[in-house]
C-alpha cells in the first residue's frame, strides 16, 4: 500500500552497485536519464534527487511514479514513502499515520535502517524500532508484534537529512540501465517467446532493434499486427531509445524454400533470417542478434540444429530463453505485458515440412539450400519501418 501523504519514491538498484566507482557513476547517470524519460513519457510529475547513490523521487503521484520506476531497467525495487524529519518523534508520527491507514490482520514489526553519516543522529536504528514500534502498538486496537514473521512490516529509512516510512518494496526488473550496452538486433515474431527474449537483453542494458519477417501469404492476416503490437508494448520500456520495428519482406523466400527444400527447410529459413539480421546489425552498429529460441522447443531448435543455424552468421546469436520451459516463458510474457499481443490469432504454421530434420549437418543443409545471398539482398532492400 501507498502510505497516506506519501510524497517520495525510494528506488534501489542491484548490479550497478557492484561496479567500480567510475562505471557506477556512469550507470547512475544513465539510470537517472532513463527514469526521467519514463516519467515524461507517462506524464508523471516527478523530480529526481540523487544523493550519495541513494536516489529519491519527489512526486505528487506516488502510485504512478512507483509503477514507472518498477518498469525501468536497473531498478531492483521501489517504495512509495512518507518523508519526514529525521527525529524519533516525527518518525513515530509517520508510522502511526501509516498504521492507521493500513488494513492488516496479525502481527506487525517495525524495521528501521539508518544510512548516511555515522553520528548524524543521536539515536540508533534499534531506538527507532523500539519507540516507533511502541507508537504503532499504542495506536492499534488489538496489537500483536512478531519480529520474525510479521503480517505487516513498517519500514523506516533514516538518512542524515530526512527519514522515510513505507510498507512496500515493489519489485522492479533489476538488471542494468538501458543504453549501457551496445544494441542488438532482435528477431521479433510477435509470438510468445521472442518479445520475452528481447526484453531480457534490454534488461541487461542493450537497446534492441526489432526485426520482423513478413511471410505474407504464409502468415495469417494478423501476423504483422501481432508483431506491431508486441513491438509497441516493448517500446513502452524504452522511451528514450530508438525502438523502430523493421519489417523485412519474406513471402518470396518462404515460397522458394517451400518449393525447393524438404526436411531442412526451417533451418534454411532461420539461416536466411540471421543473414538479414546481420546486415541490419552492420548498418545500425548492433553487436549481435537475439532470438526467442530454447533448446528442443522446436525441431529447428535442437542442440544439433542450432549449430547449423549459427554457421550462417559471424555475429553472436544470443538466446536468453535457451534453457527456459514454455510455462516459465508464458508467465514472464504475462508479467511484462506481451502475452496478450501474442494471442492475436495469426495461423502461420504452413512453412514447416511434415517431417523436419532434427539432427542436420551443415553439409546437408547447404546442399539443399538455394544461394541465400540474393534472397538476403532483396529482403534487406525491401525493409520498411513499422508504424508503432
Ligand atoms: N516472422 C518472424 N520474424 C522475426 N523473427 C522470427 C519470425 N519467426 C521466427 N522468428 C525468430 O525465430 C525464433 C524461433 O522461431 P519460432 O518458429 O519458434 O517462432 P514462433 O514460435 O513463431 O515465435 P516465438 O518464438 O516468438 O514464440 C523466434 O523466437 C524469433 O526470434
UniProtKB/TrEMBL annotation:
Protein name, entry field: Probable tRNA sulfurtransferase
Pathway: Cofactor biosynthesis; thiamine diphosphate biosynthesis
EC numbers for this chain: 2.8.1.4
Function description: Catalyzes the ATP-dependent transfer of a sulfur to tRNA to produce 4-thiouridine in position 8 of tRNAs, which functions as a near-UV photosensor. Also catalyzes the transfer of sulfur to the sulfur carrier protein ThiS, forming ThiS-thiocarboxylate. This is a step in the synthesis of thiazole, in the thiamine biosynthesis pathway. The sulfur is donated as persulfide by IscS.
Annotated THUMP domain residues: 63-169
Binding site for ATP: 187-188, 212-213, 270, 292, 301
UniProt enzyme class: transferase
Biological-process GO terms, alphabetical: thiamine biosynthetic process; thiamine diphosphate biosynthetic process; thiazole biosynthetic process; tRNA 4-thiouridine biosynthesis
Family annotation (SMART domains): THUMP
Annotated Gene Ontology cellular component terms: cytosol
Gene Ontology MF terms in the entry: ATP binding; CCA tRNA nucleotidyltransferase activity; tRNA binding; tRNA-uracil-4 sulfurtransferase activity
Family: Belongs to the ThiI family.
Cell location: Cytoplasm
Reactions the enzyme catalyzes: [ThiI sulfur-carrier protein]-S-sulfanyl-L-cysteine + a uridine in tRNA + 2 reduced [2Fe-2S]-[ferredoxin] + ATP + H(+) = [ThiI sulfur-carrier protein]-L-cysteine + a 4-thiouridine in tRNA + 2 oxidized [2Fe-2S]-[ferredoxin] + AMP + diphosphate; [ThiS sulfur-carrier protein]-C-terminal Gly-Gly-AMP + S-sulfanyl-L-cysteinyl-[cysteine desulfurase] + AH2 = [ThiS sulfur-carrier protein]-C-terminal-Gly-aminoethanethioate + L-cysteinyl-[cysteine desulfurase] + A + AMP + 2 H(+)
Keywords tagged on the record: ATP-binding, Cytoplasm, Nucleotide-binding, RNA-binding, Thiamine biosynthesis, Transferase, tRNA-binding
Organism: Halalkalicoccus paucihalophilus
UniProt keyword Ribosomal protein present: no
Amino acid at each position: 500500500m501507498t502510505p497516506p501523504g506519501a510524497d517520495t519514491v525510494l528506488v534501489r538498484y542491484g548490479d550497478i552497485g557492484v561496479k567500480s566507482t567510475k562505471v557506477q557513476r556512469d550507470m547512475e547517470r544513465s539510470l537517472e536519464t532513463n527514469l526521467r524519460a519514463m516519467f515524461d513519457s507517462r506524464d508523471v510529475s516527478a523530480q529526481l534527487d540523487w544523493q550519495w547513490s541513494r536516489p529519491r523521487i519527489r512526486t505528487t503521484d506516488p502510485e504512478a511514479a512507483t509503477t514507472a520506476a518498477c518498469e525501468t531497467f536497473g531498478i531492483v525495487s521501489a517504495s512509495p514513502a512518507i518523508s519526514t524529519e529525521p527525529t524519533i518523534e516525527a518518525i513515530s508520527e509517520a508510522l502511526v499515520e501509516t498504521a492507521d491507514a493500513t488494513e492488516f490482520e496479525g502481527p506487525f514489526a517495525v524495521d528501521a535502517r539508518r544510512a548516511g553519516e555515522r553520528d548524524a543522529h543521536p539515536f540508533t536504528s534499534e531506538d527507532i524500532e523500539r519507540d516507533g514500534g511502541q507508537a504503532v502498538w499504542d495506536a492499534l486496537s488489538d496489537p500483536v508484534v512478531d519480529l520474525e514473521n510479521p503480517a505487516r512490516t513498517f519500514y523506516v529509512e533514516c538518512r542524515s537529512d530526512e527519514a522515510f516510512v513505507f510498507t512496500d518494496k515493489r519489485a522492479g526488473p533489476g538488471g542494468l540501465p538501458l543504453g549501457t550496452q551496445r544494441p542488438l538486433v532482435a528477431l521479433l515474431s510477435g509470438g510468445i517467446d521472442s518479445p520475452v527474449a528481447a526484453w531480457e537483453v534490454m534488461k541487461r542494458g542493450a537497446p534492441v532493434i526489432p526485426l520482423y519477417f513478413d511471410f505474407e501469404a504464409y502468415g495469417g492476416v494478423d501476423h504483422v499486427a501481432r508483431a506491431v503490437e508486441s513491438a509497441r508494448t516493448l517500446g513502452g520500456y524504452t522511451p528514450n531509445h530508438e525502438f523502430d520495428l523493421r519489417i523485412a519482406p519474406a513471402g518470396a523466400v518462404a515460397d522458394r524454400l517451400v518449393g525447393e527444400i524438404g526436411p531442412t527447410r526451417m533451418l534454411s529459413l532461420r539461416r536466411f533470417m540471421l543473414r538479414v539480421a546481420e546486415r541490419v546489425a552492420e548498418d545500425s552498429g548492433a553487436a549481435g542478434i537475439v532470438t526467442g529460441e530454447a533448446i528442443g522447443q522446436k525441431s529447428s531448435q535442437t542442440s544439433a540444429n542450432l549449430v547449423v543455424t549459427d554457421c550462417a552468421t559471424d555475429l553472436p546469436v544470443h538466446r536468453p530463453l535457451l534453457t527456459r520451459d514454455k510455462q516459465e516463458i508464458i508467465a514472464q510474457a504475462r508479467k511484462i505485458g506481451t502475452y496478450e499481443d501474442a494471442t492475436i490469432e495469426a495461423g502461420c504454421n504452413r512453412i514447416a515440412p511434415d517431417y523436419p530434420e532434427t539432427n542436420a549437418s551443415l553439409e546437408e543443409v547447404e546442399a539443399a539450400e538455394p544461394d541465400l545471398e540474393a534472397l538476403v539482398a532483396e529482403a534487406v532492400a525491401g525493409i520498411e519501418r513499422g508504424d508503432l
